C-alpha cells in the first residue's frame, strides 16, 4: 500500500513517540538506563517519521 499523503507516517510517529516516552519514563523511574536509551531512540524515530509525513504532505 502506497502512502502519498504522509498520514501513515504521522500516525506511526505518534505511536513511536508515545511508546518512547513511556519507556523513557519507566527507565528513569527504575534507574534502567538501557530502557531509557531505547525510549529516547523510539522518540527520535517518531520525530523523523513526523518530518517524513510533513514532507509528503508538502509534495
From TrEMBL:
Alphabetical list of Gene3D superfamilies matching this protein: YjbJ
InterPro entries, A to Z: CsbD (IPR008462), YjbJ_sf (IPR036629)
Chain ranges of the CsbD-like domain: 9-58
A Pfam entry, by short name: CsbD
Region (Disordered): 1-59
Feature: compositional bias, Basic and acidic residues: 1-24, 38-59
Record family assignment: Belongs to the UPF0337 (CsbD) family.
Protein name: CsbD family protein
Amino acid at each position: 500500500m502506497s502512502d502519498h499523503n504522509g498520514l501513515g507516517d504521522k500516525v506511526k510517529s505518534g505511536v513511536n513517540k508515545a511508546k518512547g516516552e513511556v519507556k523513557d519514563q519507566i527507565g528513569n523511574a527504575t534507574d534502567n538506563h538501557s530502557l531509557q536509551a531505547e525510549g529516547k531512540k523510539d522518540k527520535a524515530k517518531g520525530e523523523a517519521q513526523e518530518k517524513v509525513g510533513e514532507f509528503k504532505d508538502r509534495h
